[in-house]
Amino acid sequence: MEAPIITMPNDVVHLGVDLEHISKRFGDHVVLDDVSLHVEPGSVTALIGPSGAGKSTFLRCINLLEVPDSGVIKVDGHTIEPGKQVSAKDLTALRRTVGMVFQSFNLFPNLTVLKNVSFPQQKILGRSKAEADERSLELLDRVGLKDKADQYPARCSGGQQQRIAIARALALNPSIMLFDEPTSALDPELGLEVLAVMRELAAAGMTMIVVTHEMSFARDVSDHLVVMADCKIIEQGDPREIMSNPKEERTRRFLRAVLER
Predict the structure, then answer these.
(1) Strand 70-75 and strand 44-48: pairing?
(2) In terms of pTM, does the model score above 0.85?
């Protein structure tokens, strides 16, 4: 049996994520309206809903890529109150805890695949080049791309670049992974490569919050499904139950539009 892509230490207690009364506006435009969510450690939470619902902004608030106007963010023991000054030390600690994978791959085009994965480890974790490269090659092997270590990102397919981005995020040893529509820029076949890696992460017990339009992933892999519309959470609970028997008319309309196209 192959070794798992990542192992979660048994002696480390993770506390999950609590987002309390998060609100965000851009000028006069409300993006998030008093949104609260609890994410159990070791669980997979999928966020679905129509475009413009606030899903990606909500995700980016977790590691303060977007700063909420109000609310409280609790991530694996770190508590952030957006109205108060956040020190550089606290922000670094938060972002070391939370890995993130974006729609666009955000790889450095002038660095090899190996250096893309190793450089953040040296910069953020203080690892030596040898230590960082060893960890990078281990992770690249697990996402099936060790043979691409000396290539540049432009020589890799979109699916390969997204798997490299996942390896880079995992190399910083996060306890929580955020995915913002990681397959939306990929054709279906390449998207399956990325989803396979995400399924393995879920099986290993990584806490994951995923904004996705992949309904099969949301139904079959996630432990908790959250439906957002009109800047709020309108329904949440068991994925299969919501998919088969949604309580809210807005959820029914969205699922019909997605599943029947």
Answers:
(1) unpaired
(2) yes
